């Protein structure tokens, strides 16, 4: 299942790298693309979205939406 995450606080390529590292730490998640302000990922249907929110929060970013 493909999801688009809108992320607040990403303003540079260093932020993109930090978000990529945070999302890469999660199992069963496939990163499709990350750019300033958003990340496209592919996850299983039963994936706990709170894990994504928590990982990004720990990295210093706020999830605005997951679609």
Verbal overview:
This protein is of the alpha+beta class and 67 residues long. The protein has one domain (2-66): Alpha-Beta Plaits (2-Layer Sandwich). Helix content is 33%, strand content 34%. It is built from 2 helices and 4 strands; from the N terminus they run βαββαβ. The chain has helices at 13-24, 49-58; strands spanning 2-8, 30-35, 38-42, 62-66. It has a 4-stranded antiparallel beta sheet, with helices on one face. The termini are close together. The model has no long low-confidence stretch (mean pLDDT 96).
The proportion of strand residues reads 25-35%
How would you classify the helix and strand content by structural class?
alpha+beta
Q: Helix and strand succession?
A: EHEEHE
CATH topology term: Alpha-Beta Plaits
- N→C terminal distance: 10 Å
Q: Give the domain tally.
A: 1
Q: Would you summarize the structure shown here?
A:
The protein has 67 residues and is of the alpha+beta class. Helices cover 33% and strands 34% of the residues. A 4-stranded antiparallel sheet has the order 2-3-1-4, covered by helices on one side.
Which labels suit this protein?
alpha+beta; 67 residues; Alpha-Beta Plaits; 4-stranded antiparallel beta sheet; 34% strand
